[in-house]
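Internal QA ticket QA-208
Title: Verify multi-chain structure generation after dependency bump
Assignee: T.L.

Test input:
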Amino acid sequence: MSDAVRSTAATPGVLPSAVRIFDLSLGQMLWSRRSVFLGVLLGGPVLMAIALRIVDTLHASGFKVNGAAIGGSAIFGMMVWLLFIRFIVPVLGVFYGTSLIADEVDDKTITYLFTRPIPRRSVLLGKYLAYLACTVLLVLPSVMLVFFLLVPIGGGRIGEAFPSLLTDLGMLAVGLASYGAVFALVGTMLKRPLVVGLVFAFGWEPAVLLFPGYLKRLTVAYYMQALVTHEMPQDSAVSVLLQVFHEVPSVTTSLLCLAGIIVLTLWLAGRAVERREYVLEQ
Amino acid sequence: MTTKTRYFVIVSLLVLSVGMGTGLVAYYVGFPAGAQGRRGGPDELGYVPRDASVIAFANVHDIMTSELRQKLRRALPMQENGQQELQNQTGINIETDIDTVVACLSPDAASPNIPGAGMVIARGRFDEVKIESLMREHGAHVEDHNGKRVVVADTKDVADVVHGQPGSFAVSFIEPGLAAIGSTKLIKSAIDLHKAGNNPQAGLESVTGNDELMSLVRSLDNGSANAWAVGRFDALRTQSHLPANVLSQIPAITWFAVSGHVNGGFSGTLRAEARDDESANNLRDVVRGFLALAKLGSGAKPELQAMMQSLEVSGSGKTVSLSFSVPAEVFDVIGAVVNKGKPAAH
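Actual output:
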């Protein structure tokens, strides 16, 4: 048996290698400086929910908008829309997704991973899985706490609202997976991925959604809309415009498209990692 | 994976599992009323069935001890034989024994009564033995329902005779100091709700699960009103059995809400929700027209001016609102008018 054949036989597959990288990266991701930012980002809604609950307990008349009483489910739906879907999920995707490979390049540690006898794309896949586990394990409990704090406000019923919570949790997990995959591709292909990612998440996506036409299909938010069970809040002129051009694909189409986005972007990112020559600046 | 990371994963999964478990239990079993924090309105609403078309509340103690009530008693000395008779027969003194009352009407196809079956839940101090023995003297019998004694009396009032069906009236003391009086079916449902709490999956749910009605209740039950009523106007209209040409003349109102505060005077708000914006606009115009006419007519009576000036129509969209305030002086005028016709006491 030649050396080349023996070397190929000894190389572990993509998945076992990805699991090893996942194990290594999860701890690194959780206890990094970025986690402080993540904690603040996810602690905010919980603190806000606690404050609302205290205010509700102290004021017997409950919350009112234009004289009409507003229930806890509506407040929870509004928070899921405005804070989680439109802000936290894209932000986490940008900050974590773009840094999967870029951080290793910046820290000049990518060489250590690439010199291991494992496929290069398994590095990306393992880190992506670690990102997914890290964000899902932080975002979902945060949403769960917000749900139990807010829904009983104004006589809301946990049992009735529970199915929508399950949908929300599933949708947030899919959102994190989709944004993470898209920004992982951006991180592997571009030199300044963070800037490009922020422009995509907070410039391109909201802008394109405002206009009629096909361009909105080149966003993740377009497919996410179909999975949202809560009514879009009429909080601004932008929301009113979004309602006017409210063109939402079916849930099946959205799920298929989001799955396609995840698979395609991860495959492209893996391909880029395999082929790209990373030059470490001295 | 380091120990720290492992702990984090465990804690995170634990939060998710506890949340999921609690949610699943709430979904399949339901929580007893009151376990989920404030829901608005008095606690007695937990015993009113979900499909109630009208619910009303009155703080009887507040109203009975109000200045207005005292003024009315002086201005319009009424015969209080009925009140005395009720006290003799049941031991209930309305003035001092009843604190609050919650009443409801529930559509019931089997009921001969036009608005459906009714129930009053009174909180106060009751002589349970005296009430039960009195009812038994009048032919009532005692049933046991879900561990509670229900005193059932078969009635034959005018409506029953017309419809050829005997009515059924019951009284039960759901808890110490809480009496439910009314249709037997509603009393039994109140006992079930008291025993098991809300359980929509089992088909047992109180009006607290009716979000539309409860949001109206919450908007009224803000501590400033000591009496209020809310209801589905369309349900009442459907059950009224009026001729089609009469029904078509009634404004297209879906919900109504009335709240009032009784103390020195009487102030309140009457709110109606029309079927659409156009109906609401029409209703606002009609009410404004009547108000203009009434203000014109009251020009010669300065004592009514303050009341007429307080009448105000407002609302936007489908809501039409009429607020009013009747000062105590108006009741003095009414008392004087009524007493004028009576011979002077010697």
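Spot checks passed. The mean pLDDT of chain A is 80.
Status: verified.
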